[in-house]
Amino acid sequence: MSLPTISRYVVVGAGIHGLSTAYHLAKELRTRGIGSGADIVVLEKSSPGSGASGIACGVVRNNYFQPAMSELMQACVEVWESDPAAYHYNSVGYIALGASVQESDIAATFERQEQIGYRSELIVGAAKVDAHMKSLFADWRAKGVTVCLHEHQGGFAFNMDSVMGLVAKCESEDVAILSGVDVEELELGSDGAATAVQTNRGRIGVGEQLVLAPGPWAKQFWAMLGLPMTIDIRTPEGDVVRNQPMWTYWNLQEGEVGVDPLAFATVNGSAPPVIHLDSDAPLHTDDGEVVTDELWGIYFKRDRHGVQGGASPLVVEDEVQLDPYPQTTNVDAGFPDMWCAALSHALARFEGCRALYKDARSGGVGAFTADNFPVFDYVKPNVYAILDSNHGYKMIGVGREVAKVIVGEHSSLLYPFRFERFTAGDLHPVSHSPYPWS
Ligand SMILES: Cc1cc2nc3c(=O)[nH]c(=O)nc-3n(C[C@H](O)[C@H](O)[C@H](O)COP(=O)(O)OP(=O)(O)OC[C@H]3O[C@@H](n4cnc5c(N)ncnc54)[C@H](O)[C@@H]3O)c2cc1C
């Protein structure tokens, strides 16, 4: 398809956010009688799903300590549940298990879920948690766990399949998705508004608005917009912390073991919920070698070819080379031992699974903001940025909200993620989780 000289709405990035925005915007325009999908073009330098959305483990959960994240996630789950077939969404639920230090955070999360009507249950006390988990998996044996949040909504989706589901929805609304179009520069007018994008295949004028959904390439677009690479942050106490890096990179540690997927089922044979286990019990390999005696955590789910999951990400110290994405050396050398030891710690059926660890295409880098939470906001008068700080495959509903904002509505769900929060000191509360995203 040839490049248009101008498009009313230009969306950059065909990952979960760019595609969801384009699809929902097309629907908004059509149902309001103010346009159609033909007014939208999505520019993708590679192909749909070639960024983080196509490598994500695909976990969909609401376990967020921050009220704004929890409420936004509820809206996102609503979108997943609206068309499970097209999104290849598996509504198996999600279980978060924590050590005593996390009890109050997880209980607060549960209370908020109750208030907003998100279906979940809370189990507190080591013996009760153990009994709950044994009622699902007879060979459950994890130690150092005193709290369990069992979300009866959420689960996971198959990453590339859901991306292709969104592509089909966009196409059904006449949205043009142009692959192989690399945005190299943004043209800004004297008022800062975007007038055009320069690509490897020519220039496209921006008729009304530009939406940026670049995933891990966030910093490159930040630079193209001339936005500051370091920022001052006002803490909720009123202190100002100066010159904090706006962008840092973390390397997501994920892998797979090649067991029979059906061997990972609940006692009644049904598909298991996604499990996230944090524990302060010493972790050993099956051979008895100590892996760690500090708080550790893993997550895992049944996949098509076995069991897939990950552990805490690692900060990447230097500027990363993002292309090609993901990098081939994307997990730390110690990750397979740790993750397999933890799987075996959780369920006896995974004893010896280290031998079945697969060097599959998994793991990858994410771009994190200064407070590790998303920025969803206008960053120039007509440039809306969806910079999700790597929270976001699960956030399929952000595009629905952004579409409303683009046609002029206010989104109370997106407001807490405005860029101004850093100077206003309106930051999100921080939990005791060892992860940068909980
Ligand atoms: C290993 C890993 C596991 C994860 N697991 C989960 C999970 O289980 N659950 C969850 O909720 N989240 C998960 N995440 C986070 C999630 O994948 C991301 O937050 C989300 O996919 C980001 O979506 P996006 O649309 O913003 O970006 P992407 O999917 O990265 O899409 C951005 C697109 O923009 C394109 N692009 C970039 N630059 C340009 C340019 N100059 N011109 C044109 N196109 C360009 C890219 O090619 C890419 O296709 C994980 C992330 C990683 C790395």
What are its keywords?
2 domains, alpha+beta, 438 residues, 8-stranded mixed beta sheet, D-Amino Acid Oxidase, Chain A, domain 2, 9-stranded mixed beta sheet, globular
Structural overview:
By secondary structure, the protein is an alpha+beta fold. It has two domains: 1-91 and 154-237 and 372-427, 3-Layer(bba) Sandwich (FAD/NAD(P)-binding domain); 94-152 and 248-368, D-Amino Acid Oxidase, Chain A, domain 2. The chain is built from ten helices and 24 strands. The protein has helices spanning 16-32, 67-82, 84-87, 103-116, 126-136, 159-172, 218-224, 335-346, 398-406, 421-424, and strands spanning 6-12, 40-44, 59-60, 89-90, 94-98, 120-124, 147-151, 155-157, 176-179, 183-188, 194-199, 202-212, 230-234, 240-245, 248-257, 274-279, 283-284, 290-292, 296-302, 307-316, 357-358, 364-368, 375-380, 383-387. Helix 2 (67-82) packs across helix 4 (103-116). The longest helix is centred in the N-terminal third of the chain and has 17 residues, at 16-32. The chain starts with 5 loop residues before the first strand and ends in a 14-residue tail after the last helix. The chain binds flavin-adenine dinucleotide (FAD).
